[in-house]
UniProtKB/TrEMBL annotation:
Lineage start: Eukaryota, Metazoa, Ecdysozoa, Arthropoda, Hexapoda
Keywords per UniProt: Membrane, Symport, Transmembrane, Transmembrane helix, Transport
Position of the signal peptide: none
Name of the protein this chain belongs to: Major facilitator superfamily (MFS) profile domain-containing protein
Any one GO biological process: monoatomic anion transport
SUPFAM superfamilies recorded: MFS general substrate transporter
Primary location class: membrane
Location relative to the cell: Membrane
């Protein structure tokens, strides 16, 4: 069982980098918000799985918790195999007008098996800024989803059933907001209500800074249960703006190496999701019923979210980076300039 779980986790690691690359090849810049929202909003599947698993196990036995979703995954894989292609140019079912629309809006220059410029990527200030913000994303989301219900139940005396329902609501609400805010961001770009740079910076305030400040309020044991629930739900709802901040910023920086950058970002989000519960357990292991033991955890998580959002406002970028250019493409442009210069001299 352990080996199968490890294999499952390893194989799932390919999903997000592949999805990043697929979105880069198919979504024009003014429509990426809804695509990224759908990708990040996949946590709605967790909500559905949790809801259905209980019913399946109660009705047919625990095995069907595995059988049902395994069968669904196989059916989905078959559909994906026949309908999904790497890019519009090779899809046999897409119309000529749609293909032209997508290809004109996306400029992918990567050809063949080109090694990613790892050193340039890891020393790029905008990439490092995105990495820091993505780490903050993972920390904040996993902290609220895992620690907040425990805090409500153990320190504030909420009923276990209420915190369980809250966990499900958080997943569902954030998934809806991910897609909704992504869709609204696309509209803002299409109608030129905001520039891409302003949109990303404003979104980072809502996705990171404001939720981080709300966490400080949770550490104060002076409010009613309604206030605490409202704060948690509000924090996760507006964190849905992550679709327009860290979720989409990688596409601004590179389209040729988005899979590699997406893999790095996803790893940092997951790493933050591992570290956050460890830090929480360290402070609350023996005193999880005391509010005072939880306060440092909330202050740390608040600082991570706020700092990661503010640094992106300062250092983040929406410009395609120089290392995105393929060397062969650069040489071709230089040759073309040389030819034009020769023609002018003649």
């Amino acid at each position: 069982m352990l080996a199968l779980r490890i294999l499952l986790g390893f194989s799932g690691g390919f999903l997000f980098p592949a999805s990043y690359s697929l979105i880069a090849n198919w979504a024009v810049p003014t429509e990426r918000g809804k695509f990224v929202g759908a990708l990040i909003g996949g946590s709605i599947g967790t909500f559905i799985t949790w809801s259905l698993c209980g019913l399946l196990i109660e009705s047919f036995g625990w095995e069907w918790g595995f059988y049902a979703f395994g069968i669904f995954a196989l059916l989905w894989t078959i559909i994906w195999w026949f309908l999904v292609y790497d890019c519009p140019e090779v899809h046999p079912l897409i119309s000529a007008s749609e293909k032209e629309y997508i290809c004109d809006g996306i400029k992918i220059t990567k050809k063949g098996n080109v090694s990613p410029p790892i050193r340039q990527m890891l020393t790029s200030v905008p990439v490092l800024s995105l990495c820091v913000m993505s780490f903050g994303t993972g920390w904040g989301v996993y902290f609220i989803i895992t620690a907040a219900p425990n805090y409500l139940a153990n320190a504030l005396g909420f009923r276990i059933t209420a915190t369980g329902v809250l966990s499900g609501v958080i997943y569902l609400l954030r998934s809806i907001c991910n897609f909704l805010f992504g869709y609204l961001g696309d509209i803002a770009l299409k109608r030129k209500l905001l520039s891409l740079r302003v949109l990303r910076k404003v979104a980072s305030i809502f996705s990171h800074v404001i939720p981080g400040l709300l966490l400080v309020i949770l550490a104060i044991p002076a409010f009613s249960s309604t206030v605490y629930l409202t704060i948690i739900i509000t924090a996760m709802a507006i964190n849905g703006f992550v679709t327009l901040s860290s979720g989409a910023n990688g596409y601004d920086l590179t389209n040729n190496f988005i899979a590699q950058l997406g893999g790095l970002v996803t790893s940092l989000i997951t790493f933050a999701g591992i570290i956050s519960p460890i830090i929480t357990a360290y402070f609350t292991k023996y005193n999880e019923v005391h509010v005072e033991a939880w306060q440092p955890v909330f202050y740390i998580s608040s600082s991570v979210l706020v700092a990661s959002g503010l640094q992106f406002i300062i250092f983040g970028s929406t410009e395609i980076q120089p290392w995105n250019e393929i060397k062969e493409t650069v040489r071709e442009r230089e040759r073309e300039r040389g030819r034009e210069s020769e023609r002018e001299q003649l």
